[in-house]
Amino acid sequence: MKEKKIIRSLQSLNVYDINSFIKYVRSPYFNVNSHIISYVELLVTAIKDQKTDGLTNEEIWKHIFGKEAYVHQKLLKLNSDLVKLLEEFLGQKEYDQMVSLRTNLKLEGARKRAIDHLYNGILAETIRLQKLEMNQSSDYYLKKYEIEKNIFALKSENEKKNEKFEIEGELNINRISDNLDYFYIAEKLKHFCTLLSWKKMYELDIEMRNMDYILRVASEEPFISIPAINLYFRMYLTYVDSEKTENYFELRKLIKKHIHMFPADEQREIYSTALSYCLDKTNKNVVEFYKETYEMYKEALENSILVVNNSIMVTTYRNIVGIALRVEEFDWAENFIHEYAQFVDERYRENAVQFSLARLAFYRKSYSTVLEHLFNVNYEDVWYNLNAKTLQIASYYELGETDALESLLQAFKMFVRREKSMSNLRKEHYMNLIKFTSQLIKILPRDTLKLQKLRDDIQNTKGVVSKPWLLEKVDEMLLKKR
Question: I need a surface site. Which of 60, 155, 290, 444 has the fewest CB within 10 A?
């Protein structure tokens, strides 16, 4: 059969969700159509047996309706109804996880139906859950606002007249208002930080209204004492005033102290901001941030932030290896390469692992091993082609393979010139590496003047791939002369 949306959707569920969905469909509260039950059972069996490709509409019809004449529109309607049931099931699964929301809705349901004798029990449950609540993101204050609003509504005019009611002691207007303010300010800051992160990557002509007011009150008490507000305010400062590293380090303290108070998706956004700041600094060769970036990555891994749905982005995988090597954590890097390879998309895994092992071998000065791993890298990806060639150049030089190096430099020069996906500026950076390496292998060690001039040229040229390595090699020759 032509693959239907319902097939693709069911295939995306894990075995526990599949079993729960079947129970959901069988429940007369959610579904009274027995044909849908037969339909979903048929599809689940076909998925388990991997036989969905051979399942025709006619076979589906016969399984569900027997000898009744085939009506295509009726089958389409059945399919549509099952899709809607699946969508409602997914919503129900999310609702089941929202304990505070369910309790609040119970309170609202009892109030609307004036079931007075349920109030105290639900209120006690509400108070108990609030004490146990770990999530203190902006949504936490929205829930508190809704709860306080419902509690306020319970105080009907009739109740106020028939009990000893002290207005100042009983009305919770300020708690309602405060929680709404906390939610609004934290949520605005969160979205503002998202906008600023996008503006770093793209030229966006988008502004958020009322941010001057939000930023002013967020920096004052009592708002700055609210973890969600304080943390997002510090994130904002790292975007707009990145030169002040104290903004980052204050954010770092807040992450350590409060990160457990946020749901997983927000934890990832928070860590992403901190890591982005660190990577900007390392890319500018701010040595202080090499170790800091490494520690941030380690912490994010320990808190299960970077592996999402058993998957880690290949760029993240490579970045982690790179920064670990920079701070000479070779054993840790090797363990990471092998342990986390399983989470890299299978399409990119072999290249990522082999290239990472080549980099590790280079830092360990095992240059022959570098070449062995690079031999297993597929160069169809331009990123791997460029970076592997860069490693090969350095490895041939370290091994004293001058003929192989000269041949590689010529071939690499032709590749860079012809590669259409590279900008002219990027091409220039690689051509500088080729030019300076070619000069380096032609200078005699005793020719101090030429070596010093080469060093000055490398140092004063902006945009040189492997610049620290080139300077290191020139310095080694100068020291030998002395």
Answer: 444
> What would the two tokens of residue 201 be?
């990557």
Query: What mean pLDDT value characterizes the chain?
Result: 88
What's the number of CA atoms in the CB half-sphere (13 Å) around residue 368? 0
Helices and strands counted in the chain (H then E): 25, 0
Task: Please tell me the distance from the alpha carbon of residue 381 to that of residue 389, in angstroms, as a whole number.
Answer: 12
Nearest to 332 by CA among 289, 294, 304: 294
Helix (H, G, I), strand (E, B) or coil at 311: strand
Rounded CA gap, 452 and 472, in Å?
12
Say if residue 155 is exposed, middle or buried (CB neighbours under 10 Å; 0-12, 13-18, 19+): middle
Query: Exposed (0-12), middle (13-18) or buried (19+): which is 201, by Cβ within 10 Å?
Result: exposed
- Residue 308: phi, psi to the nearest 5? -120, 125
In the structure, what pLDDT confidence band is assigned to residue 158 with cuts at 50, 70 and 90? very low
Q: 481, 451 in Cβ contact below 8 A? A: yes
Domain locations in the chain? Answer: 5-97, 380-482
Secondary structure letter of residue 70 according to DSSP: P
Residue count (the chain): 482
Give the H or E element holding residue 266: helix 264-283
